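CO-FOLDING WORKSHEET

Operator: S.A.
Ligand of interest: zinc ion
Run index: 299
Mode: holo prediction, single chain
Checklist:
[x] sequence pasted
[x] SMILES validated
[ ] output reviewed
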Amino acid sequence: MIRFGIDLGGTKVELLALNGEGGELWRRRLPTPQGDYQGTLQTIQRLVNEAEGELGCQGSIGIGTPGAISKATGRMKNCNSTWLNGQPLLDDLQQLLSRTIRIANDADCFALSEAIDGAAAGATTVFGVILGTGVGGGIVVRSRLLDGPNAIAGEWGHNPLPWPTDDERPGADCYCGRSGCIETFLSGPGLSRSHRERTGETLDAFLITERTDAGDEACGITVGLYEERLARALGHIINILDPHAIVLGGGLSNCARLYRTVPLIWGRYVFSDRVDTRLVPPRHGDSSGVRGAAWLWEY
Ligand SMILES: [Zn+2]
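OUTPUT RECEIVED:
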């Protein structure tokens, strides 16, 4: 069976065709027609036609999107590619491409990709975490995405940071309307703000982690604080979900010391005499979105 995964991003649309074993057969990307819904549909149709023409066969289609489908209306919601919001994307594509299509958000696709044949392959319960511009997540149990009535399983970024210290309350305002959300501490901009508040120095998250690796003391303290907060936030998840593996994705997943330090801290917050959950870096990196979209047809 050939599976097509499509990553519908804000700047590019990418199609990857996988064979039954997860081997890559065909890959192409086109720019996303910004602000143009009909153009977006046509771009996806064009990629599918080109893949099928060159491979000489049909494939199943899974799509990863920045938002989710509202179960109430069947229309897109929460997309930062705002021209998709309110559109019946799934229905329109199913009609255009004459087949049943599956759609999931990009954090879910990341989690699925790493659970099926990535860093968490073989783990029964997997929490996939995005630590990037925002903080998101997805949960995979026995190779299937956990999918509930609100289409938000694993979305922990707008929960409050657990066990806050006095100087972490009430926390920064968040665009969701509350304050002190996990995302405001653990996103890249959150790390950057934390460093600025402590030192007065404005650096982006990548530079802070890079300077930490090079031995910069001030940046090292900021990253140490980040690790303590990440350990608390993940400890909370472990108490509820008890996952076998947690895979980090997004820009901050490149910070190698997190995998060493965070498991040394999280035991303080987990209600157990020991913690055997593995914390692992992603295997597929930037390809996780398209690969996970393709694996939406694993089951
Ligand atoms: Zn929030």
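REVIEW:
The two ends are 12 Å apart (CA to CA).
The chain has a mean pLDDT of 95.
[x] output reviewed
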